[in-house]
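Hi support team,

I'm filing this because I wasn't sure whether my run with flavin-adenine dinucleotide finished correctly. The job status page said complete, but I'd like someone to confirm that the output block is well-formed before I use it downstream. Pasting the exact inputs I used:
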Amino acid sequence: MKHAHVIVVGSGIAGLIAALELSRGFSVTLVTKSRLAESNTRYAQGGIAAVMFPDDSVAEHIADTLSAGAGLCNAAAVEALCAEGPQRIRDLIRLGVEFDRTGAEFSRGLEAAHSYARVLHAGGDATGLNIELALVNAVRAARVEVLEHTFACDLMMEAGRVRGLEVLSPGGVRSVLTAEVVLLASGGAGQLFAHTTNPKVATGDGFAMALRAGAQVADTEFYQFHPTALAVPGSFLISEAVRGEGAVLRNEQGERFMQRVHADAELAPRDVVARGIAREMARQGGRAVLLDATALGAEFLARRFPTIDAGCRSHGFEWAQSPIPVTPAAHYWMGGIRTDLWGRTSVPGLFAVGEVACTGVHGANRLASNSLLESLVFAWRCAGLLLEQGIDAGLPEWTSDRVFITAPDEDQRTESLTRSALQQMMWNAAGIERSGDGLRDAAQRLRRARIEGTSVESLESANLLQIACVMVEAALAREESRGAHFRTDFPETRESFRHDSIYARAPAGGHVPAGLEREAALPWR
Ligand SMILES: Cc1cc2nc3c(=O)[nH]c(=O)nc-3n(C[C@H](O)[C@H](O)[C@H](O)COP(=O)(O)OP(=O)(O)OC[C@H]3O[C@@H](n4cnc5c(N)ncnc54)[C@H](O)[C@@H]3O)c2cc1C
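And here is everything the job wrote out:
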């Protein structure tokens, strides 16, 4: 049986940084289900936000992040993010990332809800790819054992502590890797929805594994929908930076409808723009709205946004000549495995960083370009803690324990569900606009649902089903609208809901400790 001090799951920015740093003091095995360079990180376009210019300040970055988070941010996490961000950017540069420059200065992009142009980018709109490839090179050169095309199935537990990981290797062979620590950096779950900007690997496996192992999860109802994906099968992200540079949204009549919706029009917070587009689409029979970047000129668009320029052309659109059809798509999950500011979860030996984790740094809504930074900063902090305190770095100290225990209910799972049916159900019931009726109906169907098969795809779909259950339960329980969570039956923000929603699986035997406020029936594998 293979053994390492630490197993890292995932090879996006969070996993690569963690593996790299941890390899300075520990034996590290990095497990990733596709090739090493495949991740959400790879597709990030707009850039990474940090205070790198003298006219900007950490206080302003903090204020913008808190404001986007709609009252639910963990202030200490936001402070760590914004204060440590600049040093981590310098570390990325040291590791080989070349951010774009205008003369000697970094080029700076403006994105929605940032009060300063503080978004660094690389290769124009290929920021994620540049970061990913630089870190992959660094990891290849480090003392990290890399297992590609290896699917992490479940955590191996012993006496309530993580002792390793069950994996499916390329030939379909199941085995166990043992370790003192498993660090989940397995990214988000965009594949939960029918329309998403996320690649195929984003199936929330790490979240589902942690849930099965009894970890607390937080704020799962908060999912951010990106306002502008190209309206083609498979979706293709059109970065917010395009609107930051001056592109505008128009309806079929050519009107700039966002000016009617919000004072900041196209640069209003993401959820506002996504809802504005969804409603305008509803008004025009479901047809996509138009993103008009023609005023920016062909030469500028090709230079500043080479990836999008090529992507548009490959789908038959000349965006310098005429507006392109766009629609919202599932993009980023604010919720995740509940962690403290060092990646510690409620399960001994289990750590989580990056999009799979919920530090509370994004609150109810993420500020654009803060997620690459989050992965970078908190992966670094987590590795730092383990290097400093050793492998037994303890459990987090949490004060506000509002845990809603969920109880397994096997008998109800009578209906077979396909992944595409699940994705459509989630898009309709738990998408940009939600209602009590829609969520209740989805919750009932999810409780009856089961996923057939034992292939990797079936295991991913089963994970998605578990995530869907928790997300729908949390969305149903939150009878208000806040940040990215919008309820048509509760359109106002309510002070009584100014708290995180925290769930965990009931302990073995289904015993629910006294005093817990709510119980829900979820289908477990
Ligand atoms: C199109 C697009 C554009 C974006 N643009 C920006 C942007 O401009 N700025 C910004 O800040 N953020 C952006 N984001 C969000 C950002 O890219 C992600 O939040 C961030 O990259 C997450 O990094 P991560 O390391 O946590 O996860 P990821 O980069 O998603 O990596 C997760 C890794 O885990 C692996 N994995 C998953 N499950 C398993 C399993 N069961 N077994 C083994 N391995 C597994 C995956 O293969 C992958 O390697 C964008 C996202 C997308 C999709």
